[in-house]
Amino acid sequence: MTRIESFITADLIATDEQILQRAGEAMNRALQDKKREAAAVREGWMQMRQQSMQSRTSAAPTALRETLDRAARKLELAGDFEIQVIEKGKKETSAFTVRHILDDREKFNGCQTLDPLEPEYNSSSVVGKLFLKSATPTLHSLAHGGMTYRLFSSADEPNVCRKRLIWNERNPSEIVLRCINQMKATERFFCMGEAAALLRNNRVSILTEPLLDFEISRHVDLMTQNAEGEYKAKQMPIRQIKQILDLVPSELKPLESIIDYPLPDEDGILPEMPGYIDKAGLFLTKDPALFDVPKVPSEEDLRKAVETCFLPFTHFQFENHTQGRSAVLAAVMTSVLRPAVPVAPVIAITSPSLGAGKSYLATALGAIATGEVPDCQSLPETSVELEKVLFSHLMQGSRFVHFDNADQNVQSSVLSSYATAARISGRILGVSKINKHLPNRALLVINGRNLSFGNGMARRHIPIRLKPSSTADLTKAYDFIPQDLALKRRHDIITAVLTLTRAAKAVCVSRRNFASYEQWSRLVRDPLAAIAELLPDLDLVDPLAFLQSGMAADTHVEHTGELLSFLQAHFQGEEFTSADVRERCLGDRAWDDLVRTVFPSGSGRTAQGIGIVLSRLLDQPAQDRVLRRRMRDGKNMWLIEMLKPSD
C-alpha cells in the first residue's frame, strides 16, 4: 500500500467513525420523535373515539378511556367498545358494543366488520370477521397487515379463559392451588404489603372474603360429579376461601402503588412501556411516551419547569418569600414523586389568620397528585381514630390524604410514625384477625392556623407559612381557582417535575442524604438544591433551610411549653398580673433562663418587661397549655388554660 493509499484509508476510517456516531445520535433523536408522534396520534385517536362513544354509554370517562387504551395497546376489545358490524342479511353497518355481541354469539358469529380501531380504513372497507365459537372469541381484521383482536364482555375481564375445576373431597388443597395459579395468570391480582389486592379500572381493592368469592366465581367454574357422571356447579367453601386469602399474597407480584405517569427508578431512568414495573413495584396505566422529558435538561428547560410548577400558586404570599417558594416547589415535586418514594415528609400549610388560602393550596397539591379534586377531613381527636383513618386510606390505595383546619398545636406520635414508615400496620376487616402491613405511598397534607408540631415532627414536615390575610384579600377576585388550574395543567406540571428531577446532574455537588428520607432527598432535595445553586435568580434555597427552620420553630414551641408549665406551677390555674409574676418568679433562675431562651432580646425583670413577654406568649398553645388574657378593672389578667391534647 502506498503512502497516498494509507493516508486516504486512514482519513476514510476516521470519517466513518464520526459519521457513524452522528448517525447513531440522529437515529436516537428520530426514534424519540417518532415515539412522541405515535403517542400524540394515539392520544388524538382515543379522544376522538371517546367523544363519539361517550354519548351512547353510561360508562365513566376513565373506564371508557381504559377500554380504548386496552384496545390500542393489547388488541383486546372489551365491554363498551363499539364495532361496526354488517348483520347477516343486511348490507349496511351498525354499531354494536362488544358486550352486546358476546351476549348473542349465535347471531353475530361469522358477521363481517369494519376495522375495529380504524373504521375509515381503505374508505370504510369490510376487512374484519367475528369468530365467536371458541373459548376466547376473536375478531380478525385484514387491515394493517392482519390483526387478531380478543373480545371480552367486561371492561375489567382478565385475559384468561374461565377454567373448569372438579371438586375433590379427598384433596381440596389441589383446588386451592389451582385457583391461586388462575389468579396469577390474570395479571390483575397483586400483593400489597401482606394483603392480596385486585387491580380494576385503574383502582386497587384489598381482597376480602366476599370480594374473593365473587372474583373466583368469575374465573373458575367449580363443579362436582355425581355417581352417574353428571356435573353440577358448586359454591367454593368458605374454608378454601380463607386458605386462598392466606396463601395467595406470597405468590403474587408486589404492588406499591398505581400511577398514571412515569416515575424515575433509583438510577433516574423512566419506564418505556405502560404496565407493571417489576423493579419499582408500580403499575403504570398510561403510555410514558406522552411525557416529553429531556434527558439532560438545559438551564432554559429548568427555568420553564420551575415556572410551570408555580402556575397554580402565583397568588399566594409567604412569610418568607424565598423559603415559601422553595417549600411550595418541594411540595409540588413530592406530590408527583410520592409513589416512587417509600417515605416522605408531611406537608404542613399554616397562617396566623383565616382566608390566606391554606385549603386552596392543599387541594391544588391533591389535584396534581391524583388528577381529581381530593376530599378533606378533620384531624381525628384520638390516636386510635387517626390510625384507623390513615389505614383505611391505604386500603383504598389513596395517594393523597388531607386533614383540614387542624388544631394549632398538633402533638401526635401516630403522625410522627406515619411520616417515616414505609409500611403501616392495621386490621383488615373480612381478611384476618391479625394486623397486616400495607405500603405507605400516600402524601399527607395538614393545614391550619398557627400550626406547630411536637413528638419529633419538627424534621418530618415541610412547612409552608403563608402571610396573614387582610380584608382586601378576603374580597379580592382572582381569575382562576388553584385546583382548577392544577387539573388543567396537570400533564405539564408532571412533565416539569420529571424534568426537575434530572437537575442534580447539572451541578456535581455531593450532599449528605437527609436522614430517614434518603430517596426523597435524592429525587426532591438534591434537584432543588442544584437549581438554587445553578440559577440563583429564581430565588430558591436548599430544602434543608426550611426544614431546619421547622426544627427551630418546634424547639421554640417546646421551650414555650416549659415556660407555660413554670407559670402553671406557680399560679395553679388562678388569674395573675405581670406584677404577680415579678413578685413570685423574679430571682428564680429557672424563670430567667426560660425567658432568655424563648425571647433572647426580651426582658423579664420589670413588670413592664414581664407584660411584654406575656403578650408574646398570648394564645400560643404548647404542651397542652395556652396563655389567655382578659381585662378586669382596667388591668390585664392572665390565666393558663389546659387544652385537650389531639392524641
Q: Could you describe the 3D structure shown?
A:
- The protein is an alpha/beta fold and 647 residues long.
- It has 6 domains: 1-55; 56-152, no CATH class; 163-251, no CATH class; 257-287, no CATH class; 300-540, P-loop containing nucleotide triphosphate hydrolases (Rossmann fold); 550-642, no CATH class.
- Helix content is 42%, strand content 18%.
- The strands form 8 sheets. The protein has a 7-stranded mixed β-sheet.
- Strand 5 (128-131) and strand 6 form a beta hairpin.
- Helix 10 runs parallel beside helix 11.
- It is elongated, with a radius of gyration of 32 Å.
- It starts with a helix and ends in a 5-residue tail after the last strand.
- Mean pLDDT is 82; it is low at 6-14.
**Whole-number radius of gyration?**
32 Å
Q: Name the structural class.
A: alpha/beta
Q: Unreliable stretches, pLDDT < 50, 5 or more residues?
A: 6-14
Helix content: 40-55%
Judging from the principal axes of the Cα atoms, what is the shape? elongated
Write the CATH homologous superfamily of the largest domain: P-loop containing nucleotide triphosphate hydrolases
How is the biggest beta sheet arranged? 7 strands, mixed
Q: Which short descriptors sum up this protein?
A:
elongated; 42% helix; alpha/beta; 6 domains; 647 residues
Q: How would you sum up this structure in a few lines?
A:
By secondary structure, the chain is an alpha/beta fold. 37% of the residues are buried.
Task: Summarize the SSE layout with pairings.
Layout (H helix, E strand, L loop, with lengths): L2 H52 L6 H14 L1 E3 L3 E5 L6 E5 H6 L1 H4 L3 E2 L7 H4 L3 E4 L6 E4 L5 E6 L10 E4 L5 H15 L2 E4 L2 E6 L2 E4 L2 H11 E6 L5 E3 L4 H10 L9 E3 L15 E3 L4 E3 L14 H11 L11 H17 L8 E6 L6 H13 L6 E2 L4 H13 L4 E5 L4 E2 L2 H6 L4 E4 L9 E4 L3 E7 L2 E2 L7 E5 L5 H5 L6 H7 L1 H11 L17 H17 L9 H28 L6 H8 L3 H10 L8 H11 L7 E8 L2 E8 L5
Parallel strand pairs: 1-7, 8-12, 14-16, 17-23, 17-25, 18-19, 19-23, 20-24
Antiparallel strand pairs: 2-3, 2-4, 4-5, 5-6, 6-7, 9-10, 10-11, 12-13, 15-16, 21-22, 26-27
Helix pairs in contact: 1-2, 6-8, 9-16, 10-11, 10-16, 10-17, 11-15, 18-20, 19-21
